Amino acid sequence: CSNDFTDLAPISNRNEADFYNTENDFISAINASYAGLQKKGVYGRGYWTMFEMRSDNTDQGPDATGLARVYTEINAFTEDPLNEQITAAWTDSYSIIANCNVILERIDNVTMNTDVKQRIIGEALFLRSLMYYHLAIAYANIPLQLTPFSVGDELTQVDANTVLTQISGDLEMAEDNLAVSYSGGDKGRATKGAAATLMAKVLLTLNKKSEAEVVLRRIKSSYGYGLLNDYANLWGAANENNKESIFEVEFISGGIGQGSSFTNDFSPSAFLQTGQGFGRNRPTASLSNAYENGDLRFAPSMGTTYLNAAGATVEANYIRKYESDPPTENDSDINFVVFRYADVLLMLAEAIGESNEAYDLINEVRDRAGLAPIDASTSSTFEDKLLKERRVELAFENHRWPDLKRFGVAATKVNEAESFIPQSSVRSLFYIPQREMDLNTKFVQNTN
Amino acid sequence: YGVAEQNDVLSVNIKNEPLKEIFKTITNSSGYKFFYETSEIDLNKQVNLVTNKVHLSELLKELSASSDLNYKITSDQIVVTKKIVSKNVIETINLRSTAQIQNLLKGTIVDESGMPLPGATVQVKGTNIGVVTNFDGKFEVDLANNVEIIVSYVGYKTQNVNVEGKTTITINMVPDAAALDEIVVVGYGTLSKKRVTGAVSSISAQTIVNIPVISAENAIIGQVAGVQVQETSGEPGSSPNIRVRGSGSISAGNDPLFVVDGIPISKNLTTLGIQGDLARRGGNFQAPPVNPLATINPNDIASIEILKDASAAAIYGSRGGNGVVLITTKSGVASDKGVFSFDTFYSTQSVANKIDLMNAEELIDYTRDARNNAYLQDVQGASVNDPIGPGDRGNANYELPLSFINWDGTDTDWQDLIFKTGYSKSYNLSYASPLINKTSYHASAGYFKQEGIIPQSHFERYNLMLNLNSQLSEKLNLDLRVAPTITENQRQPGSAPYFATPPGIVYSALVHSPTVKPYNTDGTFNQTDNQSHLGGGTTSASNPLAIIDAVDDKLFQFQTRASLGLSYKILPELTFKTFGGTYVNVYNRDFYRANSLLFREATEGVSYAQASSSTEVNWLWENTLNWEKEFDVHYFNAIAGYTAQKDNIGIKQVQADNFPDDLVTTISGGQVFAGNSVREQWSLVSALFRLNYSYDDKYLFTGTFRSDKSSRFGKNNQTGYFPSFSLGWRINEEDFMKSIESISELKLRFSWGETGNFEIPNYGAIGLLSPNNYNFNGNEINGLIQSTIPNPELTWEKSQQTNIGVEVGLLSNRIFLLADYYNTITSDLLLNVGISGVSGFQTTLQNIGEVKNEGFEIALKSRNLVGDFTWETDINFSTNKNEVLSLNSKGEPIFSSGQAGIRHITRIGDPIGSYYGYVVDGIYQNQQDISNAPVDTQAPKPAPGDLKFKDINGDGKITPADRTVTGSYFPDYTWGITNRFGYKGIDFSFLVQGVQGNEILNLTSRHLKNGEANFNSYAVFNDRWRSEADPGNGKFPRADRLSGNHGNNARPSSFQVEDGSFVRLRNMTLGYTLPANEALGIEKLRIYITGTNLFTKTDYLGYNPEVSASPNSSLTPGEDYGAYPLTKSFTVGLNLNF
Predict the structure, then answer these.
(1) Residue A145: closest CA among chain B residues belongs to which residue?
(2) A96 belongs to a structural domain
(3) B670-722 residue pLDDT tens
(4) Which of B533, B840, B844 sits opposite A98 (nearest CB)?
């Protein structure tokens, strides 16, 4: 009698012991991996601090004390392994990886619709690879965990190339499994194009340009993307999941914990009607100057002045791509665009290398920005021109830091834009979070 | 014989029967046995008695009137005694005739506190002349040429008094050493105090009622050694923090177990959101939960016992680890007269101490200083004389707001605006019935209301209670208790930072510039030209008056305790008891934040409403067998029992926003956007056993054993065993001590025991999945993710405690000393052990780690003066040292984020939740100082006047590795001294309380003491460093708006840790008891005035040196981030018995 009396199962929670049994269970499980992308350690905040603010594009802004200090440190390369933001990036990224690992291990034994099973495997591989790509760029020397972790398992670090090689293979399978597009309630799931775009990025990072080229040409020819006519139409809640968009992290407002905080984080103080603007991730003068005169991308991308509540004009650089009017603080509809087609065109140019075709690809992007075409005769090197184009086209979209690393110019560019950071301070890797160092005593800290 | 029983009344018709027949008749019909000394009473005396339908008591009165016998009903017996032969029994005294009596002595008998004692016996020595005192404790007796009288009264020492030559006398009775025979509630039974071998502290009803308080816990502040009661908030209905002998647990709660009339009520609300946390406030800034024990009316309490050591608490097994507080409510009286009591008080409250902030002129000077210092350091060629207006220096942080430059003389005291005089009033009426038909009861009704010092915050309580006891038959006793209560709180966001949603009222007032006008010219709240709109690098904050007006937060609580106990005497010494109890708690919360509030610099309001309700039903069934036997010198008291308890809780919540206006403030007025409903359960099955044995009342032994099986534990570890034993030696009973009369009690105690803490999450052992929803293209979809790792080994925390105690009574216990030393090791701590993030989790719940609490307690009670003028002193003193002995396998510290990032550490060798940061090592006076000091890697560009930090690890530079423990919320020692004076009917008492060596993490320093002058600030910053020649008082750095780019003075450091030691005049009471007035039927009438928290001496800058923003979090105690201030109060009250 007393066994029954004290054997109480949870009423309002599912118990993992009887989950992962049906198709619906796996759909719910993979959905939770997408939801992980919204977290503060990942796209919610961590990635823009580590891939945008770290670079020469932006700085933390005027708020340098208190809790803002963790961001200031990331901007200034003065963070230590205890930094809460780099810790959150690690744990939130691996949280998605771990969930995908469980799905990938358990789904084989479950009977369900084959198409759905294929799709879920593809989604899990894509999301896991997306996280590993960011971890490889940020920390490089990380454990490559591909199966569910059990308490007590020993972890070993592998280098970035090993991680990237693994995921380029995974992404091939993901591309096979996923659909070209989805309709209705599934619009927004990972597509062939998303997996291929990430694969191309990984291959470029591995310096496998010709392999990347094959993938990128496939995207261009087979998946139906195209540039929007007006750069300004890329932004705002009404324009989400458009023809140019390849993959987005979806946010919605409504007080259900799925709103984004980009508007509040990036808008300058006293700018919003209903809440606080923190003026973070502030565009540097160097970025502002990188826009050519007449570049139609400038105004939709960043502002230089705003009207405060008293109606006075205040000068400040701030990001405009994520502007919205959230009904409540930190609860905006604005999505984060992870990949879009303009990036594919510029990556293809990069993969092909200096050539007329490469300039044509770059000029396709410039043309939409209202700028004259460039060619081999335009001053400076192909790499510099391409990198500059990527900078202004993809500003504030978390591409800059990986780009600087891939082009091998991180130290010089950061120092150029933010002179208070000497080149010698610019480390190419983030520290492994101290808690991981403590928990895994064989880990070696990144020192460079 | 024609005796009929009708309800409570008897009819008797007896003529010329012997007395014994009457006794037999009454016994048969009523169940009462007669108890008498055969030698004194002639049972064969013929009597007549004819009555029709009278109560037993009246019948006995009649029987007495016609004989020389007295009858008294005591519990289930009628005691028959011979009347004392006297011509002067007071009821019959004719005062005019007394003048004729020679050698007359008039007098008054009073108790130790000067209260008259009616019914005391005064006998002239060597005669059979005797009288009984009347209602006023007065007597008159003819000494008949004798010189000595004998005064006696139950429970008091019998006195021989020489009255030679006196005609009037007042005699103070002294409680007997036999007061040690007082009964102590020990859990599942009672025990004579002299036989108790564990560490148990008792608080009497008198102590509780004498101090007008909201809840019982407040009554014991500063009164019990080893029990620290901290008033962490002054909010009406708030919960004091109770710690018995320190804190042993890191994450399973440290509140003791409360057992009210046998029903265990946990205050550890492990279920998050039981009162409906605000979804839009953010987890860190939730208001502390209201106190579930505030539903108990202090007037209903008969006694509070605190089981402090493991020996005493082990009977509660897996729940006794934090100590046990037993609350017993009042019962009917076993007398032949019922007593009405009416207690009332009215009290006014005001903020105990205002914080000393800068006035407008000081703030302007400070701000100018901060801007100039930043400007001069950053800008080449800058001059202090450069224009400082908006736009003049190219960066708002170098400039002054226009309203500072052209100050219009406004000097608002925001604290005065948000605080008012609050009041509370209490009415309580109770009736303790006499024993009628073997049934007695206590019934009470109470009403309490408190208006807080922040407008609109208030607390109301409505109580009813009925405790009924009936001897159903000679062997069967019934005990029924019902206590329904309603409490209503109107809460205000008093305790949150200025940037929380809704913003904290108090904090918003503190940071607000005095240069700002609170109201617009049309009388509306100034929300568009306030702190948020000063500009020039000042930080924004909402108008606190607008917050008060905009927030409506109602909490309704209905709580009922009900129990039924049936005891059956199988044998005279063997009783079986079955006890069923239930505890029902219904919470309803309605929160509304109006559109009218402009959040900081927002220009549009955002409305939000949340309705939450929770229903908790907890039931308990206990079966116990009790054997009590005394023969020769042996005394046995054994109890064995089997109990089951189950708790069901359901929580529902709905949220809405987008209210078109503020006319309808419930959910229906807006658009519902979210809701949820959660149910949880736990259950516990236990077997318990206890044996008390005493040999000749000299050698004492107690052994306890309990086993608990709980649903909360992992499958492989569901049952726990909790043994304890204790020994006592009453040395004073030994022959060699008998001759030392001055030592009336000398007892040594030793105990050892193991207890547990089962306050782990309901499903902590199970791998749970939680919703993690997403949306595609704007449509929400379900996602589920595993949120916890299963741990089938999960079990309770174990505490092993050793206690050594001594009790010394001197001079018939006029001086009584209790001293205890204890050592508690809590092991198998429930810890969220960090695991690699690669697992997808950050922590897993495991039983690991050890904490030690070691302490020493002394309680001294002394009756300094007896007689007309009485003076008693109670002193208590306790120390406790809390130390973490081990944590996870690698011994890594736990870093914890409270309300402002990681500022706490729990590490081996230090107390739980110690403060963590850099250590300030003075102030750089000049550039030379900076060059000589270790390089501060955390300060981009330090300058003279900035804080110098300590190189803890001695590596020649200041790095994050130099952070260390900077203090702890645990005091080194606490003490309290109560003095009570009595003279005639006047009583006067005061309680001084002290806490020494605790530190507070004053997070308000982040804004009010940050040197950046972006808000108003503590006035102490007027003594800041200005130059090497004018270094202020040496404690405060220079003003610098951009300290983060220079000295980084505001980093977490010892600068924000302040000494919280204090000495407080907790309570001062003056009362007067009017002489009893029989004509008006008044037995007792006492009026009193009381002052509470009249005076506190402390160096702490904030409102309350005991503040703790997250009282339920052991890992982050002692934070002050804008708390509801403590109040001081003045009370007028009245106690009336009739």
Answers:
(1) B838
(2) yes
(3) 999 888 888 989 999 999 999 999 998 899 999 999 999 999 888 888 899 99
(4) B840
